[in-house]
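Quick illustration for those who missed Monday's session on complexes.
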Amino acid sequence: MCGIVGYIGDKDATPIILEGLKKLEYRGYDSAGIAILDGKSIQVRRDSGKIAHLGELLSKDPIHGSPGIGHTRWATHGEPSERNAHPHIGFNGQVVLVHNGIVENYLDLKQELMAEGIQFNSETDTETIVHLIESYLTAGNSLQEAVQNTLARIRGAHGIVVISTREPEKIIAARIGNAGGVVIGLGKGENYIASDIPAILEHTNEMIFLESQQMAVITKDDIKLMTLNGTRINYKIEKIDWDPISAVKGNYRHFMQKEIHEQARALTDTLAGRIDFSNSNIQLNTLNIDKIDINKITGIKIIACGTAAHAGQVGKYLIESIARIPVEVDIASEFRYRDPLVDKSQIVIAISQSGETADTLAAMEEARQKGAHIWSIVNAIGSQAMRLAEGFISMQVGPEIGVASTKAFTAPLVDLYLLAVLLADKKDLLCDESKSKLISQISMVPDLVGTCLEREAEVIEVARKYKDIEHILYLGRGINMPIAYEGALKLKEISYIHAEAYPAGEMKHGPIALIDKQMPVLAIMPKDPWYEKMLSQVEQAKARGGKTIILATDGDKRAKELGDDMLWIPEAAWMINPILAVIPLQILAYHIAAMKGLDVDQPRNLAKSVTVE
Ligand code: M6R
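Prediction with 5-amino-5-deoxy-1-O-phosphono-D-mannitol bound:
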């Protein structure tokens, strides 16, 4: 979690870092701070609360200079407060540091440092790192040596950025493990550092990504990339083709609203270059699928967390139906703790928007060690999940800033559909006619999603009626069962309404007892193979006095008779329905939270990238 920004060059670092931090606030927002080298001394401003608060502090009490580093925090050790906010300064005032990660042995290190008479000013684990660097500096090490010696002593996964009055012409950045990325942005006579691309994209689109166990010594004119023991490494400059404009809110009230509305265009981008209409072929070039004999694959495991796991559950239906390969979906945080049965006859697909989710990366590593083929479906370019995989499919939807995932849910659905067709093709399961039918169905998605988005006003009316409810039950079956889970997650995470999701067929085994006038039921029942079953389950809910919101296919009269309120989606093939059905549910959750005046983009207790276990 946490966002990091750094700058070195001739400009004043403060506004650059402050603006960069605003773009990273989605990573954590309980406190923030900036440190600048001002001539010979370190100036720090930090406070609890959001970046706006830090901005006010800086206007009252400005600091100027270069280099500088900044941080927005998601607390792991120590409450959100000024004293626990980063940057943290060393005991002699010569080193200042921002950190992303957890020092697993910090208690031992803290005791050792305290025994040497070093006083701690915060409850954070991070403070041990900065004091260690300062100790090594004081003992005569160069800044680079001090950082290297320190990194050799801390356990866990980390991204750090350090500056020092002793060597004011450089910034040192390092990455160990998967606690979040470190990316260096190349400028002319200046360089940038960040945990994520959006923070610095307005300044440069040329970036170098640090791998685990790498560090960089960055001056305004030069970058030296090396291993943690100082062996130089050649670096590859990657050009980022994200549009910096898509990382700003524009005329929308919230990023989430903008990202919901971007989906028609974003899914066009997801499809771009992936379908060869002349011969009905799917092209997923970065997947390296030809390195695997698909006919020898006995099963696929999808590992992911939260919204990404819901996408995986839809993927199970798609891959099993189209490619006839058994698929299991695992919550990544559970996967590695049960000695999972995976081997080289299986493909493990990790799905992750950020590509930095610690649980997902750990599950990938577990599967890799057991010999499985590893693929990923990822949005963030250059992220660990992209790099650790043998092949990847990029979501191609641009940065997603709202903590509640929207376009990074529909994009993997499109990717999984394409993958299912490609796998079926490799297994020779599809005749030309079925292949081109499947392809034509997926190519209609952006238009159909556009139609769903045009109906926002109707969904707002439903939101108005239900905004004050305290509980709600989402029901779905078959391929739309994960959509019930996703709809409920969207509502609960941004509106704090208790929304529970259930496979509709399970109702009679317990949850039906919950239904009364206070517990509305939202039933997802477009025309699909589970439609008739859904009808009878909604009848059962209605018979017990439940108010019903029904999500149905345009023109469905039977659904309309049952629904107190309706959410409509256009007619589509059943395998496409989930991509459409989730749109009104995203819009509903968004407007309920916005009507309640809640902080939609940064809901309480959450962060966009969950880089801790
Ligand atoms: O970056 P990832 O896709 O790996 O994130 C996984 C989950 O943390 C994420 O999907 C989360 O559930 C959503 N932000 C919820 O909307």
